[in-house]
Amino acid sequence: MPKVGMPEVRRPQLVEATMAVIDDVGLAGASVSLISKKAGVSSGIIHHYFGGKHGLLEETMRTVLRKLSTASIAHLRAVDPNDVSARVTAIVAANFDGYQVESKVTKTWMAFWAQSMHDQDLHRLQRVNERRLLSHLRFELKKAMPAEQAVFVAQGIAALIDGIWLRGALNPAGISMHKAQEIISDYLEKQLAPYLS
Fold this sequence. Notes:
Elements: H1 10-29, H2 32-39, H3 43-50, H4 53-77, H5 84-95, H6 103-116, H7 120-141, H8 147-170, H9 177-196
Organism: Alginatibacterium sediminis
Protein name: HTH-type transcriptional regulator BetI
Pathway: Amine and polyamine biosynthesis; betaine biosynthesis via choline pathway [regulation]
């Protein structure tokens, strides 16, 4: 976490620079020196406010996760609270929102996922994100099916989101939100069918 007093104008500047450098050279090559140069600040600022590269990556992912949360809220507000299919589709859409599939963001996600397997703080962030997604999905699905089935279907949808997202991130053509929605909607329709007839 950044220290109190971090100038608000600097925080987004450093987060953007971190993602841009990861996009250019990957996490291993993303040194404090390169990030500070990209942001137009001294490397001392990064060390002072974030304790180095690790703290800056953590803050960068917190920013990405906040944007994901904001997108989820916006997508959900736009649909009928009683339309389970539309609600789940909105949650899926937020995960494939324009910002989340930008090259610099997808590469940062990939770096974060890989690093979170070896870092307790980043792993905790990943678990919070995973629990939040499953919780949102279960909440909506329980409106249409038994709780046990809602848990099962939520896990299936989350796995599809992650799998499609990962395959798209590794594809030179990028992530197709349309294709993701099409695949997940097909799965959702089949799972909801017994309860909507």
